[in-house]
């Protein structure tokens, strides 16, 4: 049985899957299985996967009709045979010491959290590196599925799965486990390379989503997870506010003003109705993110959301 199961969900990835898989096969650590799971790709991804599987017996191929990344990762958890699992997106790649660093670091912990590099999609030029701080806020800040390792027994024993929601399924997945275990290790390492499609922040109106699906995520967290048993109310309050702000920043780039203002109203009404409409400072947060979050909170209090929309729309801002 392999020590690590590397799970790669694949959807329409024929043009970059080779880079991802090659980076995994070149790992200094060798005791792993590589699970390539096709989520009903409409291009030639499955053909590429089968060709790649001929290169290395550690590659296992799976296929199903299109259900989304959450469903595909759940299937990976179900089929994995390693003691530990890690997820890598098919358009990303990892450094040669990635798995070796993880397996030497995780110890008897349930979750291992590391940092990541953001690189340009085409040239793989380094844009910035994010290294996590060894503090409790990191468990809220680093909630992406990638750049982590999980104990498979822990996931299965606690029935931790990706929820059937359209936005933030990785946030819910990670908070589900973070809230019930203290066996989480944070390491100051970035060996995961997240390829950023810089054109994605200038999406056209065809991508406009008029449903405030971020509230599906926040409702599920609020109703199903007891975060305040482990985290301070101040930290949880800031998390809810920041999540709403992140969503609104994305919508600035694709929404017309009327739709955007409706989303603002819905988001801040959710915060108010659940007692999370105040602004609390998490000292470990980056200054620029605290400033952006405070700016949104203040604009809502002063009824200046429309003005903020007009100021921010040309800038294509994002916060991590």
Describe the 3D structure:
The structure is a single chain. The chain is 40% helix and 18% strand. The protein folds into two domains: 4-196, Spore Coat Polysaccharide Biosynthesis Protein SpsA, Chain A, CATH 3.90.550; 200-312, no CATH class. The chain is globular and about 60 Å long. The protein has helices at 17-25, 45-53, 69-79, 98-105, 138-141, 152-157, 169-178, 214-224, 233-252, 257-273, 287-301, 305-312; strands at 4-10, 32-39, 59-64, 84-87, 93-94, 111-120, 126-130, 148-151, 184-196. The longest helix has 20 residues, at 233-252. β1, α1 and β2 form a beta-alpha-beta unit. Strands 1, 2, 3, 4, 5, 6, 7, 8 and 9 form a nine-stranded mixed sheet that branches.
Descriptive key words:
320 residues; alpha/beta; Spore Coat Polysaccharide Biosynthesis Protein SpsA, Chain A; 2 domains; 9-stranded mixed beta sheet; 12 helices; 9 strands; 18% strand
Largest sheet geometry: 9 strands, mixed
Structural class: alpha/beta
The residue ranges in which pLDDT falls below 50 over 5 or more consecutive positions are 199-208
* Range of strand content: 15-25%
CATH topology of the largest domain: Spore Coat Polysaccharide Biosynthesis Protein SpsA, Chain A
Calculate Rg over CA atoms: 20 Å
